[in-house]
């Protein structure tokens, strides 16, 4: 039957209205009109329950909108109904599709769904028209609709897309309510296990939103323990602050079963903070007999007033009118509670999108535009590098952020020095007492250094006088003793390179919003990193050769001081081993002392070689460490000619127009992204202006 009168099909939703609520709900409605709800969740009512539990009929009672019904086919997608109070000349119906998560990832499918739009005058929107548009929308989504007859072998049975129905007119009140597909438990030839998973995920996506008021629907004829939707609601809303229980089909309960349902309705079984409501919707018999929405309300009032035991329930807990009054209060309070946080989210999104737009920069259609854009990026990059090298970090950075450049370099420097101290020597030096020197016993190289020295000394003897050592012998020994330096320094250098690469990647990610431009700049920086690393390796080779290939040289007085101290310790140690100490040392016959302290020329030479090598090694290693850090890393990698010089304003100024186009030329995707960001920012700013005018 096609009911043409809007007053009959779409009565006032006056239970959700008063002056204060109209103003507040109007603000939410304006935000929704702007499309803010695409990015920020807005307060709304969502009807959830099992299939055939009476959800659609309840929605009909709340909104006055009669859904098409197919005997073998339940709702296959979510339906959002938005009621707006407007002037008569603006009255009408607009039906569109909001693409779901799957369609959002497919540009072609998304455009296809967004292309669906139907507009009608309010007085032309009857049941027949609604059914026809419902079919068209279902076909557009690729799922069966009310008129579908072939229900087997369907490729797609449910959709995560949303059918949005906007009703505008002077008799409406501001309201948004959503009906989602019902849960089912046993797959059939019409609905599969995969369908069950899709529906569950869809319901969860709604009820886990903290700004959704959950209207949990229970068929009075079914056991509450079997109603999974209430288990899901408890998981999403453990405090019950957003859940309202609604019992439908009270008139269909078998005689004798009413007591169990009454206990639920009286909030004695599944206890909800907001309690339960009982309603009587139109039955199939009512619909077939032509009972309209007003008739539905009348029959409901008569049922709860006269039929036992339902007439024992509190009057403010039965009937759709009482439910609407309660939801009006609850929705209003919910909006007021969420409003401050909602405004913060809108402001944060506006700021976030502005930052993304700033990273994309202005339009880059000409060479001048491109040069200005890249010059600005280069200037910011150089400022960031200067701050990072100076240890001046953004307080918001994570503790191990790659943008903390100097921190990571300092850590590598310390680790390099520690590794050199532990593993830089081929053999561990000894103390004057002949024990392993604990300053060097941190690695694994505990070979007998004295055996090694004695062997080289014996095998290298030439024309020098007995007991003396040729300088080349010491030089060769030092070269072998410092053999690990090269690998340790190269490993340190590689780690510095990795830190620099990570910094550049992070810096560009924070400065450049265009993926294509960022990739091009990363290529430029990598080339410079490779060049800087090659220079650093060459400088390291020079430093190593200076230390390990030339004559042993130093003007550092610590060498002489260390050697003198070692020789003194060695003499005292030898005397103590012979029984002399501070108490008897001055009563000793000098001749006897010299005789007993005498060493062979070879032993004396070995001791001298060890002590000279040890004293020089200590000075040379510290010098080498500093030279690697300063001359190799700081100069070649971090300095003015290093890895960070590929992106400077001067370099951008020297680029040809062709090079500018290759790096910063704007493609369609970037242009579209910029326009999208501009649109979002405008939407968020208008939304913030609406909230400011609200005075809430």
TrEMBL record:
<dbReference type="InterPro" id="IPR022812">
    <property type="entry name" value="Dynamin"/>
</dbReference>
<dbReference type="InterPro" id="IPR020850">
    <property type="entry name" value="GED_dom"/>
</dbReference>
<keyword id="KW-0342">GTP-binding</keyword>
<dbReference type="InterPro" id="IPR000375">
    <property type="entry name" value="Dynamin_stalk"/>
</dbReference>
<dbReference type="InterPro" id="IPR045063">
    <property type="entry name" value="Dynamin_N"/>
</dbReference>
<dbReference type="GO" id="GO:0048312">
    <property type="term" value="P:intracellular distribution of mitochondria"/>
</dbReference>
<dbReference type="GO" id="GO:0005874">
    <property type="term" value="C:microtubule"/>
</dbReference>
<dbReference type="InterPro" id="IPR030381">
    <property type="entry name" value="G_DYNAMIN_dom"/>
</dbReference>
<dbReference type="GO" id="GO:0006897">
    <property type="term" value="P:endocytosis"/>
</dbReference>
<dbReference type="GO" id="GO:0005739">
    <property type="term" value="C:mitochondrion"/>
</dbReference>
<dbReference type="GO" id="GO:0003924">
    <property type="term" value="F:GTPase activity"/>
</dbReference>
<feature type="domain" description="Dynamin-type G">
    <location>
        <begin position="39"/>
        <end position="340"/>
    </location>
</feature>
<dbReference type="GO" id="GO:0008017">
    <property type="term" value="F:microtubule binding"/>
</dbReference>
<dbReference type="GO" id="GO:0016020">
    <property type="term" value="C:membrane"/>
</dbReference>
<dbReference type="Pfam" id="PF01031">
    <property type="entry name" value="Dynamin_M"/>
</dbReference>
<dbReference type="GO" id="GO:0016559">
    <property type="term" value="P:peroxisome fission"/>
</dbReference>
<dbReference type="Pfam" id="PF00350">
    <property type="entry name" value="Dynamin_N"/>
</dbReference>
<dbReference type="GO" id="GO:0005525">
    <property type="term" value="F:GTP binding"/>
</dbReference>
<feature type="domain" description="GED">
    <location>
        <begin position="606"/>
        <end position="696"/>
    </location>
</feature>
<dbReference type="GO" id="GO:0000266">
    <property type="term" value="P:mitochondrial fission"/>
</dbReference>
<protein>
    <submittedName>
        <fullName>Putative integral membrane protein</fullName>
    </submittedName>
</protein>
<keyword id="KW-0547">Nucleotide-binding</keyword>
<dbReference type="InterPro" id="IPR001401">
    <property type="entry name" value="Dynamin_GTPase"/>
</dbReference>
<dbReference type="InterPro" id="IPR027417">
    <property type="entry name" value="P-loop_NTPase"/>
</dbReference>
